[in-house]
Amino acid sequence: MKPAAYRGGGHLNLVIKIAVLVSGGGTNLQAIIDEVEDGNILGSIDLVVSEREDAFAMERAKKHGIEVIYIGKKNFPDMMERNNKLLELLLKKDIDLVVLAGYMSILGKQLIKAFENRIINVHPSLIPSFCGKGFYGDKVHEAVLDYGSKISGATVHFVDEGTDTGAIILQEAVEVLQSDTVETLGKRVLEVEHRLLPRAIKLFSENRLMIEGRRVMINIEGQRG
């Protein structure tokens, strides 16, 4: 068993450096910013990268003095070149943790390998249900309702080379009501995301996440390595 933040036997900085990758409105980004500013996360958001130049998440970051960079299809049309630029930037900034907060682009294998067990994502369902290729955003909630599921929820997981296949860190269920629409269900799931994602980052920043195979164990004592 090894710490999720394992870096060749080294230790985390006292304050981890976080990069948040975004695509849209940035409500999950805001939840992270709030927890960092409240002192609940032992880290700083050193960079926000958006795949869309009009994403409102960029405005949220700028309002809090966070460096924002656009790396998308317009300025980097080739996917490999885009991923290479992103990897170069993350390494240059000496980022400890990469957080996907509604980020819709595909990460390259080289980047995933370079940041093994140091990339986390939040997904709007209880993985392994309603996840994988084609399941994103409102499409997830629509599928949940169409299937007649009685519960849904949110999952925070590590990112590997598959789609929503990385080891699960945290999950929380949300009851599906008979009156639910895609919008109402999505709103309640998003509220859970806003709690789970910062909590997972907090656990990572405290070096409390240990990986054993596919299982992520949480060190209750909270001792840092």
Note the total helix count.
Answer: 6
**Shape assignment:** globular
| CATH third-tier fold name of the largest domain | Rossmann fold
Q: What's the architecture of the largest domain in CATH terms? A: 3-Layer(aba) Sandwich
Amount of helix: 25-40%
Strand coverage percent: 15-25%
Q: How would you state the average pLDDT, rounded?
A: 92
* CA gyration radius, whole angstroms: 17 Å
CATH superfamily of the largest domain: Formyl transferase, N-terminal domain
Q: In whole angstroms, how far apart are the ends?
A: 13 Å
Q: Which parts are unreliable, with pLDDT below 50 for 5 consecutive residues or more? A: 6-12
Kindly provide the name of the CATH class of the largest domain: Alpha Beta
Describe the structure concisely for a colleague.
This protein has helices at residues 27-37, 56-63, 79-92, 109-114, 138-147, 182-205, and strands at residues 2-3, 16-22, 43-50, 68-70, 97-101, 119-123, 151-158, 168-175, 209-212, 215-218.
